[in-house]
Amino acid sequence: MTRRKPTIIDVAEHAGVSKSLVSLALRGSTGVKTETRQHILTVAQALGYRSNTWARNLAQGRSGMIGVLLNDIASAYHTDIAQGIDAAASTVGLTAILSHGHRDEETLTARLDHMQDLGADGIIVVSAALNPDHLAAAATRTPIVVVGRPATVPDTVGSVWNNDELGARLAVEHLAGLGHTRIAHLSGSPRPASRARLASFHTTMTELALAEPHQVFHGAHALIHAMTDVATARTAPTAVFASNDRRAAKLHAAALDAGLRIPDDLAIVGYDNTELATLLRPQLTSVDQPRRDMGQRALHTLVDMMGGQPPRRDVVEPRLIARGSTLPGTNTPPATRTTP
To answer: Residues of the signal sequence (predicted)?
Structure first.
């Protein structure tokens, strides 16, 4: 038996609002409160509702297309955000056109201009590489939302990013709560998110009166050498907060190769909670940033801006997923922590 397609009436009933309000929300009307719109869009997406907006787009002179610029579609971080954007876009009758592989500012700028020339109704940029001045200039032509943590966001551009300071605090406090005092940081690239995590690492270590000086390493092998060298072993870290899961995985492998036991000799916390975290043995404790939700929020913000509403700054809260790389003998479902 063929399942009946959900209608706008179904969305209204499940959302507890009127049919006309659902219609306004799906059209991007400025007369609908942001919270109400997001609730309606979430319900519509859960029901699998798809609006037929082709005729309306034609009448309004819109393309029905939004551009999405990504650094690397092979990255779990970017893939999950893109999936969130695409799922939310289809709910409101928009088609997301992805363009990826743009790590440098020049290429990203060229692709942004190209998306505008193609007639995109709005653009979501999942990168911190764009020059703020060019971003501001582009925003005068097309509504733009940035996902991630750029160094500077023009007032005319919407943004969604993860609370990196809280994420780093959760990692350090988790390790300190397990009795570790010599906690090191395995630093990442100089991008804004990594710098924010490093700064919060230092702040939290100081507030908790943990070992001085704070140990920061830029490579897994340098850290392992510090642990295994006789001259430095007594002051070497017993726990590490890595700037992302990939760096944590490299450290995980290097530690095992050196004969160290995880977490007995070295406890490790990653960041991003990608699929990689569950493939390692023991599994990796990691700070989870809700990437699909970030993509959905970015799309909702973009739709609001396309409807005439001002840009928003949306900061999402991470949580820590505790697994075997910090908890000895853990074979039970992972624990979560959401507040410092």
So the answer is: none
Contact 321, 286 (CB under 8 A): yes
Would you call 198 helix, strand, or coil by DSSP?
helix
Strand order in the sheet with 95-99: 95-99, 65-70, 122-126, 144-147, 158-162, 313-316
For 8-51, which CATH superfamily applies? lambda repressor-like DNA-binding domains (1.10.260.40)
Cis peptide before 190 (omega within 30 of 0): no
Q: Which tens digit of pLDDT belongs to each residue from 145-176?
A: 999 876 678 889 999 999 999 999 999 999 99
| Amino acid in the structure at residue 265 | D
In the chain, residues under CATH classification 3.40.50.2300 are 63-161+291-316, 164-288
Give the count of alpha carbons within 13 A of 158, CB side only: 27
Q: What six digits make up the tokens of 305?
A: 């801006």
